[in-house]
Amino acid sequence: MSKKNIGWPCLGLMFAVFSGVCAAQDSGYSSHEPQWFNWQLAQANTGQKQPQGAQRPVGQAPRKKKPVGQAPRKEKPVVPRVQTIPQLGGVLAPQGTLIVTPSLQLSTAQVNRFNFNGVSVLDTLLIGLINAEDTDRDLAEGALTFRLGVTNRFEVGVKVPYIYRRERSTLTLVSLDNNDPNAEEEQTRENAGLGDVEAYLHYQINGGLNGWPFFVANLRYKSTTGTGPFDVSRNAQGLPTELATGSGFHGVEPSLTILLPSDPAVYFANFGYLFNLQSNVGKTIGADDLSRRIGEVDPGDAFRMSFGMAYAMNQYTSFTLGYKNDYIFPTRTEINGQTFKSDRLIVGSFLLGFSYALSPRSQLAFNLEVGATADAPDVVLSFRAPFALGLF
Q1: Is the peptide bond before 51 cis (omega within 30 degrees of 0)?
Q2: Which residues in the chain land under pLDDT 50?
Protein backbone atom coordinates (compact mmCIF):
# COMPACT_ATOMS: atom_id res chain seq x y z
CA MET A 1 0.00 0.00 0.00
CA SER A 2 1.35 3.38 -0.94
CA LYS A 3 1.82 6.15 1.57
CA LYS A 4 -1.03 8.15 0.06
CA ASN A 5 -3.50 5.30 0.42
CA ILE A 6 -2.98 5.16 4.20
CA GLY A 7 -4.59 8.57 4.84
CA TRP A 8 -7.68 8.13 2.61
CA PRO A 9 -10.28 7.06 5.22
CA CYS A 10 -9.32 9.85 7.62
CA LEU A 11 -9.43 12.42 4.82
CA GLY A 12 -12.82 11.07 3.82
CA LEU A 13 -14.07 11.57 7.37
CA MET A 14 -12.72 15.11 7.43
CA PHE A 15 -14.82 15.89 4.38
CA ALA A 16 -17.92 13.98 5.43
CA VAL A 17 -18.21 15.34 8.96
CA PHE A 18 -17.43 18.93 7.99
CA SER A 19 -20.18 20.89 6.25
CA GLY A 20 -19.13 19.72 2.80
CA VAL A 21 -15.90 21.71 2.85
CA CYS A 22 -12.50 20.95 4.37
CA ALA A 23 -9.59 23.33 4.62
CA ALA A 24 -6.62 22.41 2.46
CA GLN A 25 -4.05 24.30 4.46
CA ASP A 26 -0.89 24.84 2.44
CA SER A 27 -1.33 21.46 0.77
CA GLY A 28 -0.45 22.68 -2.68
CA TYR A 29 -4.04 22.54 -3.91
CA SER A 30 -6.73 25.20 -3.94
CA SER A 31 -8.08 25.83 -0.45
CA HIS A 32 -11.60 25.62 -1.88
CA GLU A 33 -11.28 21.94 -2.87
CA PRO A 34 -12.19 19.19 -0.40
CA GLN A 35 -9.35 16.97 0.77
CA TRP A 36 -10.92 13.72 -0.41
CA PHE A 37 -11.01 15.15 -3.93
CA ASN A 38 -7.33 16.08 -3.65
CA TRP A 39 -6.56 12.47 -2.70
CA GLN A 40 -8.36 11.13 -5.79
CA LEU A 41 -6.55 13.67 -7.94
CA ALA A 42 -3.21 12.56 -6.53
CA GLN A 43 -4.07 8.91 -7.24
CA ALA A 44 -4.97 9.76 -10.84
CA ASN A 45 -1.64 11.51 -11.31
CA THR A 46 0.42 8.48 -10.24
CA GLY A 47 0.67 6.51 -13.49
CA GLN A 48 2.59 3.31 -14.22
CA LYS A 49 6.12 3.49 -15.53
CA GLN A 50 6.60 2.96 -19.26
CA PRO A 51 7.85 -0.60 -19.97
CA GLN A 52 11.40 -1.00 -21.18
CA GLY A 53 11.73 -1.00 -24.93
CA ALA A 54 8.48 0.82 -25.53
CA GLN A 55 8.66 3.49 -28.19
CA ARG A 56 7.87 7.06 -27.28
CA PRO A 57 5.21 8.56 -29.60
CA VAL A 58 6.56 10.85 -32.28
CA GLY A 59 6.69 14.48 -31.19
CA GLN A 60 6.42 13.69 -27.48
CA ALA A 61 8.97 15.51 -25.39
CA PRO A 62 11.21 13.29 -23.26
CA ARG A 63 10.45 13.13 -19.55
CA LYS A 64 12.51 15.19 -17.23
CA LYS A 65 14.36 13.09 -14.69
CA LYS A 66 13.55 13.81 -11.08
CA PRO A 67 16.49 14.63 -8.82
CA VAL A 68 17.75 11.57 -7.01
CA GLY A 69 17.27 11.62 -3.25
CA GLN A 70 14.61 14.36 -3.22
CA ALA A 71 12.37 13.92 -0.18
CA PRO A 72 8.63 13.69 -0.85
CA ARG A 73 6.56 16.67 0.14
CA LYS A 74 4.99 16.26 3.58
CA GLU A 75 1.26 16.80 3.65
CA LYS A 76 -0.02 18.72 6.64
CA PRO A 77 -2.83 17.05 8.58
CA VAL A 78 -6.27 18.55 8.26
CA VAL A 79 -8.40 19.07 11.35
CA PRO A 80 -11.82 17.37 11.12
CA ARG A 81 -15.20 18.67 12.25
CA VAL A 82 -17.74 16.83 14.37
CA GLN A 83 -21.23 17.44 12.98
CA THR A 84 -23.16 16.19 15.99
CA ILE A 85 -22.27 19.29 18.01
CA PRO A 86 -21.82 22.20 15.58
CA GLN A 87 -20.91 24.66 18.37
CA LEU A 88 -17.79 22.67 19.18
CA GLY A 89 -15.73 24.10 16.40
CA GLY A 90 -13.34 21.96 14.40
CA VAL A 91 -11.99 22.42 10.94
CA LEU A 92 -12.40 26.07 10.09
CA ALA A 93 -13.84 27.43 6.90
CA PRO A 94 -11.07 28.09 4.36
CA GLN A 95 -10.08 31.69 3.97
CA GLY A 96 -12.64 33.57 1.92
CA THR A 97 -15.29 30.82 2.18
CA LEU A 98 -18.76 31.46 3.59
CA ILE A 99 -20.61 28.40 4.91
CA VAL A 100 -24.38 28.84 5.23
CA THR A 101 -26.25 26.29 7.34
CA PRO A 102 -30.06 26.23 7.43
CA SER A 103 -31.23 24.00 10.29
CA LEU A 104 -34.35 22.72 11.99
CA GLN A 105 -34.45 21.42 15.57
CA LEU A 106 -37.40 19.69 17.22
CA SER A 107 -37.52 18.74 20.89
CA THR A 108 -40.09 17.34 23.27
CA ALA A 109 -40.14 16.81 27.02
CA GLN A 110 -42.68 15.49 29.50
CA VAL A 111 -42.59 16.51 33.17
CA ASN A 112 -44.65 14.67 35.78
CA ARG A 113 -44.91 15.95 39.36
CA PHE A 114 -46.75 14.46 42.32
CA ASN A 115 -47.19 16.66 45.40
CA PHE A 116 -48.70 15.88 48.78
CA ASN A 117 -49.43 18.51 51.40
CA GLY A 118 -50.62 16.97 54.62
CA VAL A 119 -49.91 14.23 57.13
CA SER A 120 -48.92 10.65 56.39
CA VAL A 121 -50.19 8.03 58.85
CA LEU A 122 -48.37 4.80 58.09
CA ASP A 123 -47.60 4.24 54.38
CA THR A 124 -51.15 3.82 53.15
CA LEU A 125 -53.08 6.55 54.97
CA LEU A 126 -52.73 10.13 53.73
CA ILE A 127 -54.53 13.09 55.26
CA GLY A 128 -54.27 16.31 53.27
CA LEU A 129 -54.18 17.58 49.69
CA ILE A 130 -52.71 15.62 46.78
CA ASN A 131 -52.12 17.11 43.34
CA ALA A 132 -50.52 15.68 40.22
CA GLU A 133 -49.15 17.81 37.39
CA ASP A 134 -48.46 16.56 33.87
CA THR A 135 -46.68 18.99 31.53
CA ASP A 136 -45.83 18.44 27.84
CA ARG A 137 -43.28 20.83 26.36
CA ASP A 138 -42.59 21.08 22.61
CA LEU A 139 -40.08 23.31 20.86
CA ALA A 140 -39.28 23.93 17.20
CA GLU A 141 -36.32 26.07 16.17
CA GLY A 142 -35.46 27.10 12.64
CA ALA A 143 -32.14 28.86 12.26
CA LEU A 144 -29.64 30.21 9.77
CA THR A 145 -25.96 30.02 10.69
CA PHE A 146 -23.24 31.87 8.79
CA ARG A 147 -19.54 31.01 9.16
CA LEU A 148 -16.81 32.97 7.38
CA GLY A 149 -13.18 31.94 7.14
CA VAL A 150 -11.15 35.09 7.82
CA THR A 151 -7.91 33.11 7.63
CA ASN A 152 -7.26 29.38 7.43
CA ARG A 153 -7.06 29.34 11.23
CA PHE A 154 -9.60 31.97 12.27
CA GLU A 155 -13.33 31.92 11.73
CA VAL A 156 -16.28 34.10 12.72
CA GLY A 157 -19.93 33.10 12.74
CA VAL A 158 -23.43 34.18 13.65
CA LYS A 159 -26.64 32.22 14.29
CA VAL A 160 -30.12 33.70 13.87
CA PRO A 161 -32.87 31.46 15.35
CA TYR A 162 -36.66 31.61 15.11
CA ILE A 163 -38.42 29.70 17.89
CA TYR A 164 -41.88 28.25 18.42
CA ARG A 165 -42.77 26.90 21.90
CA ARG A 166 -45.89 25.17 23.16
CA GLU A 167 -46.64 23.93 26.68
CA ARG A 168 -49.70 22.06 27.85
CA SER A 169 -50.18 21.49 31.58
CA THR A 170 -52.81 19.36 33.30
CA LEU A 171 -53.22 19.80 37.07
CA THR A 172 -55.23 17.13 38.87
CA LEU A 173 -56.42 17.66 42.45
CA VAL A 174 -56.87 14.19 43.89
CA SER A 175 -59.76 13.92 46.33
CA LEU A 176 -59.39 11.69 49.37
CA ASP A 177 -63.15 11.39 49.60
CA ASN A 178 -64.55 8.64 47.44
CA ASN A 179 -67.77 10.63 46.98
CA ASP A 180 -65.96 13.72 45.66
CA PRO A 181 -64.58 13.42 42.08
CA ASN A 182 -61.10 14.60 41.20
CA ALA A 183 -60.79 18.15 39.88
CA GLU A 184 -58.74 18.81 36.75
CA GLU A 185 -57.45 22.06 35.31
CA GLU A 186 -55.81 22.28 31.89
CA GLN A 187 -53.78 25.20 30.56
CA THR A 188 -52.06 25.67 27.19
CA ARG A 189 -49.50 28.36 26.50
CA GLU A 190 -47.46 29.07 23.38
CA ASN A 191 -45.40 31.73 21.66
CA ALA A 192 -43.30 32.22 18.54
CA GLY A 193 -40.70 34.79 17.62
CA LEU A 194 -37.06 35.63 17.22
CA GLY A 195 -34.74 33.79 19.60
CA ASP A 196 -31.44 34.90 21.08
CA VAL A 197 -28.98 35.70 18.28
CA GLU A 198 -25.54 34.18 18.89
CA ALA A 199 -22.06 35.06 17.64
CA TYR A 200 -19.06 32.72 17.47
CA LEU A 201 -15.28 32.96 17.22
CA HIS A 202 -13.14 29.88 16.46
CA TYR A 203 -9.34 29.78 16.38
CA GLN A 204 -7.22 26.74 15.56
CA ILE A 205 -4.32 26.81 18.01
CA ASN A 206 -1.97 24.20 16.52
CA GLY A 207 -1.42 22.17 13.37
CA GLY A 208 -1.83 18.69 14.80
CA LEU A 209 1.69 17.58 13.87
CA ASN A 210 3.75 14.71 15.34
CA GLY A 211 0.73 12.83 16.62
CA TRP A 212 -0.64 15.74 18.65
CA PRO A 213 -4.41 16.33 18.73
CA PHE A 214 -5.88 19.51 17.30
CA PHE A 215 -6.81 22.24 19.79
CA VAL A 216 -9.47 24.77 18.81
CA ALA A 217 -10.37 27.72 21.05
CA ASN A 218 -14.00 28.85 20.88
CA LEU A 219 -15.87 31.89 22.17
CA ARG A 220 -19.67 32.18 22.01
CA TYR A 221 -21.80 35.21 22.86
CA LYS A 222 -25.56 34.94 23.41
CA SER A 223 -27.62 38.11 23.08
CA THR A 224 -31.08 38.98 24.45
CA THR A 225 -32.97 39.49 21.18
CA GLY A 226 -35.61 36.92 22.16
CA THR A 227 -38.53 37.53 24.50
CA GLY A 228 -37.25 36.92 28.03
CA PRO A 229 -39.17 35.26 30.91
CA PHE A 230 -39.82 38.65 32.54
CA ASP A 231 -41.00 40.21 29.26
CA VAL A 232 -43.95 37.91 28.56
CA SER A 233 -47.59 38.78 29.24
CA ARG A 234 -48.97 37.84 32.68
CA ASN A 235 -52.34 37.69 34.36
CA ALA A 236 -53.43 39.43 37.58
CA GLN A 237 -51.88 36.64 39.67
CA GLY A 238 -48.51 37.23 37.97
CA LEU A 239 -48.58 33.92 36.11
CA PRO A 240 -47.30 33.98 32.50
CA THR A 241 -49.91 33.60 29.76
CA GLU A 242 -47.29 33.04 27.02
CA LEU A 243 -43.86 31.46 26.81
CA ALA A 244 -40.43 33.06 26.43
CA THR A 245 -38.39 32.65 23.24
CA GLY A 246 -35.13 33.78 24.86
CA SER A 247 -33.28 33.62 28.16
CA GLY A 248 -33.48 37.36 28.88
CA PHE A 249 -29.83 37.51 29.99
CA HIS A 250 -26.54 37.99 28.17
CA GLY A 251 -24.21 35.01 28.13
CA VAL A 252 -20.54 34.42 27.28
CA GLU A 253 -19.08 30.93 26.86
CA PRO A 254 -15.37 30.21 26.31
CA SER A 255 -14.57 26.60 25.47
CA LEU A 256 -11.80 24.34 24.21
CA THR A 257 -12.24 21.60 21.62
CA ILE A 258 -9.82 18.68 21.36
CA LEU A 259 -9.84 16.56 18.19
CA LEU A 260 -7.67 13.46 17.76
CA PRO A 261 -7.76 11.80 14.31
CA SER A 262 -7.21 8.05 14.39
CA ASP A 263 -7.86 6.81 10.86
CA PRO A 264 -10.71 6.13 10.09
CA ALA A 265 -12.13 7.63 13.31
CA VAL A 266 -11.89 10.98 15.06
CA TYR A 267 -12.15 11.29 18.84
CA PHE A 268 -13.45 14.57 20.20
CA ALA A 269 -13.92 16.30 23.54
CA ASN A 270 -15.11 19.77 24.51
CA PHE A 271 -14.97 21.63 27.81
CA GLY A 272 -16.64 24.99 28.36
CA TYR A 273 -18.08 27.33 30.97
CA LEU A 274 -21.13 29.48 30.30
CA PHE A 275 -21.25 32.78 32.18
CA ASN A 276 -24.82 34.11 32.44
CA LEU A 277 -24.55 37.77 33.39
CA GLN A 278 -26.48 39.10 36.38
CA SER A 279 -29.09 41.80 35.75
CA ASN A 280 -31.48 44.03 37.68
CA VAL A 281 -34.92 43.22 36.27
CA GLY A 282 -36.72 45.97 38.21
CA LYS A 283 -40.28 44.89 37.35
CA THR A 284 -43.46 44.30 39.33
CA ILE A 285 -45.58 41.32 38.40
CA GLY A 286 -49.11 40.65 39.58
CA ALA A 287 -51.68 43.14 40.83
CA ASP A 288 -52.85 44.45 44.20
CA ASP A 289 -52.09 42.08 47.07
CA LEU A 290 -50.53 39.54 44.69
CA SER A 291 -47.92 41.95 43.33
CA ARG A 292 -44.25 41.02 43.64
CA ARG A 293 -41.23 43.17 42.92
CA ILE A 294 -38.45 41.42 41.00
CA GLY A 295 -35.01 42.90 41.69
CA GLU A 296 -31.58 41.39 41.01
CA VAL A 297 -31.56 38.08 39.14
CA ASP A 298 -28.39 36.04 38.86
CA PRO A 299 -29.05 33.17 36.43
CA GLY A 300 -27.00 30.09 37.11
CA ASP A 301 -23.79 29.57 35.19
CA ALA A 302 -23.16 26.22 33.54
CA PHE A 303 -20.19 23.89 33.21
CA ARG A 304 -20.45 22.03 29.90
CA MET A 305 -18.61 19.02 28.60
CA SER A 306 -18.98 16.50 25.78
CA PHE A 307 -16.97 13.67 24.28
CA GLY A 308 -17.36 10.97 21.66
CA MET A 309 -16.17 9.52 18.38
CA ALA A 310 -16.89 10.22 14.71
CA TYR A 311 -16.35 7.35 12.25
CA ALA A 312 -16.11 7.48 8.45
CA MET A 313 -17.81 4.62 6.64
CA ASN A 314 -16.57 6.02 3.31
CA GLN A 315 -15.67 9.39 1.80
CA TYR A 316 -19.34 10.41 1.72
CA THR A 317 -20.93 9.02 4.89
CA SER A 318 -20.01 9.24 8.56
CA PHE A 319 -21.71 8.75 11.90
CA THR A 320 -21.04 10.08 15.40
CA LEU A 321 -21.54 8.63 18.88
CA GLY A 322 -21.12 10.74 21.98
CA TYR A 323 -22.40 12.10 25.26
CA LYS A 324 -22.82 15.65 26.54
CA ASN A 325 -23.53 16.94 30.02
CA ASP A 326 -24.37 20.40 31.40
CA TYR A 327 -24.20 21.16 35.11
CA ILE A 328 -26.31 24.29 35.67
CA PHE A 329 -25.77 26.09 38.96
CA PRO A 330 -28.74 27.47 40.98
CA THR A 331 -30.38 30.76 39.98
CA ARG A 332 -30.73 33.48 42.61
CA THR A 333 -33.75 35.79 42.37
CA GLU A 334 -34.58 38.79 44.55
CA ILE A 335 -38.34 38.99 45.22
CA ASN A 336 -39.71 41.75 47.48
CA GLY A 337 -36.26 42.22 48.96
CA GLN A 338 -35.67 38.55 49.75
CA THR A 339 -33.35 36.27 47.79
CA PHE A 340 -34.58 32.86 46.67
CA LYS A 341 -32.38 30.11 45.20
CA SER A 342 -33.49 27.45 42.74
CA ASP A 343 -32.26 23.87 42.53
CA ARG A 344 -29.29 22.96 40.40
CA LEU A 345 -29.91 21.12 37.12
CA ILE A 346 -28.02 18.28 35.45
CA VAL A 347 -28.79 17.98 31.74
CA GLY A 348 -27.20 14.94 30.10
CA SER A 349 -27.90 13.44 26.67
CA PHE A 350 -26.63 10.62 24.48
CA LEU A 351 -25.68 11.72 20.95
CA LEU A 352 -26.09 9.96 17.63
CA GLY A 353 -25.42 11.67 14.30
CA PHE A 354 -25.24 10.86 10.59
CA SER A 355 -23.96 13.01 7.74
CA TYR A 356 -23.84 12.53 3.97
CA ALA A 357 -21.90 14.62 1.46
CA LEU A 358 -24.09 15.55 -1.49
CA SER A 359 -21.25 17.31 -3.32
CA PRO A 360 -17.88 18.85 -2.54
CA ARG A 361 -19.72 21.94 -1.28
CA SER A 362 -22.95 20.66 0.29
CA GLN A 363 -24.00 18.15 2.90
CA LEU A 364 -26.95 16.75 4.84
CA ALA A 365 -26.71 16.00 8.56
CA PHE A 366 -29.14 14.33 10.96
CA ASN A 367 -28.62 14.28 14.73
CA LEU A 368 -30.48 12.64 17.59
CA GLU A 369 -30.20 13.43 21.31
CA VAL A 370 -31.80 11.16 23.89
CA GLY A 371 -32.14 12.48 27.42
CA ALA A 372 -30.13 10.59 30.04
CA THR A 373 -31.08 12.65 33.12
CA ALA A 374 -34.36 13.84 34.59
CA ASP A 375 -33.69 17.49 33.64
CA ALA A 376 -32.88 16.76 29.98
CA PRO A 377 -35.43 16.85 27.12
CA ASP A 378 -36.71 13.41 26.20
CA VAL A 379 -35.79 13.63 22.51
CA VAL A 380 -34.11 16.28 20.34
CA LEU A 381 -33.97 15.90 16.54
CA SER A 382 -31.83 18.17 14.37
CA PHE A 383 -31.55 18.49 10.59
CA ARG A 384 -28.90 20.62 8.86
CA ALA A 385 -27.95 21.25 5.25
CA PRO A 386 -24.71 23.30 5.11
CA PHE A 387 -23.36 24.57 1.80
CA ALA A 388 -20.26 26.61 0.96
CA LEU A 389 -19.81 29.77 -1.10
CA GLY A 390 -16.49 31.19 -2.24
CA LEU A 391 -16.38 34.93 -1.59
CA PHE A 392 -12.70 35.85 -2.00
Answers
A1: no
A2: 1-12, 14-60, 84, 89
